[in-house]
């Protein structure tokens, strides 16, 4: 699989560690990952009140799914990140935004601030979906 980051000079450069677009050729399989919560194996939201800790758990969960599907973090080409509005500033100041995008080799990303998430009543601050492309080989 060839993965080409597209950031043309005719469009504003990305504001963070993401690409404006990624062109994939020679791909074999796609992996679509549902919104991952910062939950442990027991289904409990971890790192209460800590956006960085929750982001790291989400990344860990996504990597586990990728591995189960025969993919690697660098196969991720698209993420959508949902952060509870009240934590958006902390998402950037703690470095959570960098941890999230760096783990997946600068995918395309859409960041959305939300009023709440499905697990907000349990302390969930972040949720991330991902799409990966795996080589034909």
The CATH homologous superfamily is termed RutC-like
Which percent range fits the helix content? 10-25%
The value of Rg in angstroms is 15 Å
Q: Say how many strands there are.
A: 6
Strand order, biggest sheet?
3-6-4-5
- SS field, number of helical segments: 3
Distance between the termini: 9 Å
* Contiguous uncertain segments of 5+ residues: none
Compute the average pLDDT: 91
> What pattern of helices and strands is seen along the backbone?
EEEHEHHEE
Proportion of residues in β-strands = 25-35%
Global structural class: alpha+beta
Task: State the shape.
Answer: globular
Second rung of CATH, namely the architecture: 2-Layer Sandwich
Main beta sheet: strand number and arrangement? Answer: 4 strands, mixed
Any idea how many domains?
1
Specify the CATH class. Answer: Alpha Beta
The CATH topology is 60s Ribosomal Protein L30, Chain: A
Written description of the protein model:
With 137 residues, this protein is α+β, with helices and mostly antiparallel strands. The protein has one domain (2-135): 60s Ribosomal Protein L30, Chain: A (2-Layer Sandwich), CATH 3.30.1330. Helix content is 23%, strand content 34%. It contains 3 helices and 6 strands; from the N terminus they run βββαβααββ. The strands form 2 sheets. Strands 3-6-4-5 form a 4-stranded mixed sheet. The chain is globular. The model has no long low-confidence stretch (mean pLDDT 91).
